Structures are given as structure tokens and as C-alpha cells.
Amino acid sequence: MNNPLKISNSWLISIAVACSLTYYVFAYHLERSNFNLLLALYSGLFIGYILLISSDFKYKFALGLLFRAIFVLQIPNLSQDFYRFIWDGRLMVSYLNPYSFIPVEIVDKVFDGQFLISKMGDLSAHNHSNYPPLNQLIFAIGAFLSPKNLLGNVLVLRVLIIVADIGIYIFGRKILEFLKLEKEKIHYYFLNPLVIIELAGNLHFEGVMMFFLCIGFYFFYKSKYIFSAVFIALAILTKLIPLMLLPFFIKKIPAKKLIGFYALIGLICLGAFIPFYDENLVSNYSKTVGLWFNNFEFNGSIYYLLREVGYWVTGYNIIAIIGKITPVFIVIYIGYLAFKKSNFLENQYLALMVYFFLSTTIHPWYLISMIFLGVFLNTKTIWIWSFTVIFSYSAYEGNQFEEKLIFLVLEYLPVFVMFYWEHKNRRINYSQGL
After folding, report:
1. Which residues of 293-306 are buried (b: 16+ CB within 10 A; e: fewer)?
2. CB of 142 within 8 A of CB of 83?
3. 0.90 surpassed by pTM
4. CB 194 within 8 Å of CB 147
5. Angle ∠(209,215,221) on CA atoms, nearest 5
6. Quick count: other Cβ atoms within 10 Å of Cβ 82?
7. Alpha-carbon span 207 to 161, nearest angstrom
């Protein structure tokens, strides 16, 4: 940002137009099974992204809005998760508890239920909902405003996600200003193709989670811990990932206020589940969340290596064993970072990075939180990963799901090399005051 590329306005406008057309093709003329086209389009978008954020183009915010607006009438084409969102929302407006029923058990209770179940996939259709209460409320808003129209429901959810991204832009700049960093760095997030495609395009709610977390961080830096606790709780109630970040406040908030800070977060989170309470809530919800540790496998890195060792030693898949060991390791590592290293945002970034390296399942939109944290840190690893993660979509090429070793290598090798190089040579020059 200190030395922007000298690109003429005419070239910048041409790049913006080319990216807009590419996003249009991506949104309305791409099928997930056509990986060659997906990779070509995404590569072009990423080149445009690098040129735009490296330039002194004055209308980056407007451009980010334009790119998101292109998706406004699109039905998501890279993920079927939104069908489950709509299902849960329609359950909510029908006064049915999304944590109490498996979709295939109550097909007739939801408008167009058979269609939604056929589209959401077998895993989702045969398990209870794992989305926290605030996420359920958002789904319900979509279903309430558009109870029978699929595109209308999608549009409501998309608008809410885009509004959250605008909020991240506003409060992200405020945090950058507070930390005496360049406010323009927020465009590393706001113009990132992965962020735009997976949030505005595919309707994932990691961006809404980061919106609340971003505001929570803002109030934390302003020493307004009550407000910070409220918004961090809202982030947790959207996605559970921020639970991992709570220990990093221990050395940053005065001891007398720390207890109240954690207590308020706990009370809000527990209170949000009260309307959904029944005798099976805890078992249903914990069982569903546990699937991500003990059953689901997709696009893993270190986990896949450990799994291969397990096959070699035992002759079978040891995911159940690994799924019990890795959370313990993550807890120990987070404890080490929280008590031994004082850098607030660096610690969170490292914790999430190691957590995802060890995870059994990594979908592209999982990286959104690290992309946001990367705005404040002088690291290249997450920007590389935000490109190479697109190779994970190669598994959907053709009519049969199949992960290919070559694409796993292409995704993770550059990421591990850069992460190791930055960590070894301390190239991640985190700014003072973090």
C-alpha cells in the first residue's frame, strides 16, 4: 500500500470491467462440475484483485459493492448449504425446533420439503441442524419475508450478508486507524474474490460472524468491555469458531473486568438456546457438531497425512482417534499462545491456522476469519491460501465426487512453504499495539 502500482485510470477501469464480467459469468454461467472453467475464472479474478489492491484506484469500496451486487439474482452454484438454511428458516416460522427434528423425518411439515431435502444433500438431510440460534434467527427472517419463493429467500439472506460485509469494511477501518495502520488495507478483505464468492455468492455466514466479531474487537480496543462481550457473544451465536478465541482476552482485560466479560458472553450464549430447549437439545446438538471431528472428511492437509499413517499401522481409518486427539492438542496450543505470547491478533491468526491445518474438513469459506485477521498482519500465507483453496473444488469435477492428490498438493504445498518461511524468519512483522 505504501508504494502502489502506477496503473493508468483507463487500465484500472478496464480491469474493473473485466472482473465484473468475470463475476457475471461465475454467477450465472458456471456449474460446479466444470472445474476447468471455475479455475480459469477464479484465476482471472485473483489477478484482477492483486492489481486493484496494489493500485491507488479511488473507488475500491464501490467496486466491492458492485461485485457483490452482480450476484443479487443468482441461485448459489458452488454449495447446496443454503437449502438447509431455507429449511431451518421455514421450520422456525412454522414454530418447529430445528434442533429437534431430522429433515427426512418431517418432510411434509415444510413447504416444498421434498425439493429442499433432495437439494441439501444426504448428510444434511439425515442430521440435526448445527447452526447456532442467531443463525437460525437470520434463516427465519428469510423465510418470514419470502415464505414460498426460493429466490426471494435467497435474496433476503444475501442482502443481510452484504450488509454485514459493509459493516466489516466500516469497523475494520476504524480498528486499522486505532492501531495506526493504513485504513486502505481493509480492501485486502473487501475485494478478495473468495470473500465475495463464498459470502455474497454462496451465502455462507462466516461474514456475518466476522461482522459481530469485528465490532466486538472494536469495542475491546476502546476498553468498552460490556459492548465487546455482547458482540462477541453474537458472533459465537452465528458460528462457533469464535469460542476458540476467548482465551486470548485473558491477558488483555483487567482481572476485575475479565470475569464479568466472560460471564456476560456465557449468559447471552446460554440464554439464546433457552427458546430451543428440550430434553434432547444437548445430545442432538453436540452429536451434530461432533460429526465435524469424527465423521466428515474433506480437503484435509495434516489430517490426511495422519490418516494415511493410521491406515499403514492399523489397516483402517483412524478418524475417531484423531478426532479426539487433535482438539486436545489445539486446546494446549491455544493455552500456550494465550499465556506465553502477548500479541492479540497474531495469536488468534496462528490458532486458527493450526486448527485448520489439523482439521478433518476444510471448505473454502472456512478461511474467511483468517482473511479478516490477515488484514492487520503482515503475512502472505493466507492470501496464498485464499487462492489455492479453489483447488478443493476439483473434487466435484464431473459427476462423481473424488478428491485428487495432485490438487491437494497444489493447494497446500505453497501454503505450508510460506507459513514455514514466515514463521522461521519472523517475516510476519506484526504491528505494535496489537
Report:
1. beebeebbbbbbeb
2. no
3. yes
4. no
5. 135
6. 23
7. 7
What's the CA gap between 247 and 413, in Å, rounded?
30
Q: Which of 194, 204, 199, 198 is nearest to 384 (CA)?
A: 194
**Rounded CA separation 119/141 (Å):** 21
Max Cα distance, the chain (Å)? 64
- DSSP for 196-215 reads IIIIIIT--THHHHHHHHHH
363 near 392, Cβ under 8 Å?
yes
DSSP assignment, residue 33?
T
DSSP letter for 29, please: S
Give the side-chain half-sphere CA count within 13 A for 415. Answer: 23
pLDDT in tens, 390-426: 999 999 998 788 999 999 999 999 999 999 999 887 6
DSSP 358-423: H-SB--GGGGHHHHHHHTTS--SHHHHHHHHGGGGGGGGSTTS----HHHHHHHHHHHHHHHHHHH
Can you give the pLDDT at residue 432?
Answer: 41
C-alpha cell at 421: 518461511
Which stretches of the chain score pLDDT less than 50?
430-434
Q: Match 450476484 to its residue by C-alpha cell.
A: 71
103 grid coordinates = 429433515
Q: Are 153 and 143 in contact (CB under 8 A)?
A: yes
| Alpha carbon distance 148, 21 (integer Å) | 31
pLDDT of residue 340: 80
Q: What is the pLDDT of residue 236?
A: 98
For residue 186, the cross-strand partners are none
Q: How much is the pLDDT for 429? A: 53
